[in-house]
Amino acid sequence: MSNSLLPWSLENWSSSKTTNWFMMEEYQLFSPNAILCSEVKIGPYTFIFNSIAKNDIAQTLITARVRLFINNSSKKEQQETLSFDAHVGDEISGLISIGLGIKVFCAGISRRFNPPNSKFGDPYGEPCFSEQFSPPGLHIAELFPILPDVTAAMCSPSEGHLSTLESLEFATPDRYKAFIRSACLYKDALDMVDHDPNLSWILMVSALETAAVVEPEFEIPPEQVLKDSFPSLYETLQNCADPTVVHKVAPIVAPTLKATSKFIGFCLRHLPAEPCSRPDDIDARVIWSLENIKKILSTVYGHRSNYLHTGQRFPSLMSKAPIKFEEKPNVEKEKDWLSREWKERDVPINLHTFNYLTRHILLNWCRTFKPKD
């Protein structure tokens, strides 16, 4: 009998260890990246990569086969992985996107297969065209892309690139759902970056916060909550003549500021090592320390809040293409499109580097999912 407490795709993943599949669905996905590989298997999923040419632009056709071990058509509302109308293909595209760090578009289901020994159906699969539609133009910037790591060619991915996702089998239902939603938000952020980088910022922050909210509460002192959320106010209060003012104010405002501290705490607990490839210019690098990354996360979260509550967009300097893989804007040499001057503390990182942070924080979080003792 189906366990209604488990998301459907998680139950399907878990059942793959003990039962035989009764049907297989095939989805077609496209990526603008050149992926040199044949086949990768992860849990109930098999990914087949084929390079194709479309309108003089090289693309990769990814055929994703999903083996079904429980009935796909009988799942109940409380078993849905996502809180919005989405199918397994959307989950797959999110997993591929965050696993490989590439743009992916799902064109829908293409075929269904019966088991090899079945007396019914075509052994080569029965075509399903009802959900098929043509993929959009997956053009990427040829010169100076905003996310150069995403537009780079991916050569010969193997299970090693996607093996982190195997840990999803051991996630609690809440963590599993949150990771899938975060992966889909991350995929959408990559899809939108060339059209609206400001929206990509919003989606990446949301991807991290979606994961952070399902994690257990950690007791954070009110003073630390205030410092994380409003460092300038904290500093102002510290400079007051009365040394106890911070201790008096912090407990009053802390309850309304916990979201920021929880977001920052989650990111710092799963902070990845500094990137392997960094700019030669030391001044173009982000200082990779907990204290500095904490300040950066606080600033980014503040920009996100300003956009949601006042419509003030992220500073355009933070969305410029890194010509030499810079990790942050150069405020001494650059101005935004309104010719405004910025202080470094207000624009401490660019979208290229924050993309690295977002993806690897979520993957590090996934690695913490372990089998129950």
Can you walk me through this structure?
By secondary structure, the protein is of the alpha+beta class. The protein has 2 domains: 8-155, no CATH class; 222-360, no CATH class. The protein has helices at 8-15, 88-100, 148-151, 159-162, 173-192, 197-212, 222-229, 231-238, 245-253, 258-269, 290-310, 351-367; strands at residues 23-31, 39-42, 45-54, 57-68, 105-113, 126-127. Strands 2-3-4-1-5-6 form a 6-stranded antiparallel β-sheet. Helix 6 crosses helix 10 (258-269), helix 7 crosses helix 8 and helix 10 (258-269) packs across helix 11 (290-310). The longest helix has 21 residues, at 290-310. It starts with 7 loop residues before the first helix and ends in a 6-residue tail after the last helix.
Strand content: 5-15%
Low-pLDDT segments:
none
What is the tally of beta strands? 6
Q: CA-to-CA gap between the ends?
A: 24 Å
Name the strands of the widest sheet in spatial order. 2-3-4-1-5-6
Give the topology string: H per helix, E per strand: HEEEEHEEHHHHHHHHHH
Radius of gyration: 23 Å
Assign the structural class, choosing from mainly alpha, mainly beta, alpha/beta, alpha+beta, or little secondary structure: alpha+beta
**Count of alpha and pi helical runs:** 12
**Main sheet?**
6 strands, antiparallel
What topology emerges from the helices and strands here?
Blueprint (H helix, E strand, L loop, with lengths): L7 H8 L7 E9 L7 E4 L2 E10 L2 E12 L19 H13 L4 E9 L12 E2 L20 H4 L7 H4 L10 H20 L4 H16 L9 H8 L1 H8 L6 H9 L4 H12 L20 H21 L40 H17 L6
Antiparallel strand pairs: 1-4, 1-5, 2-3, 3-4, 5-6
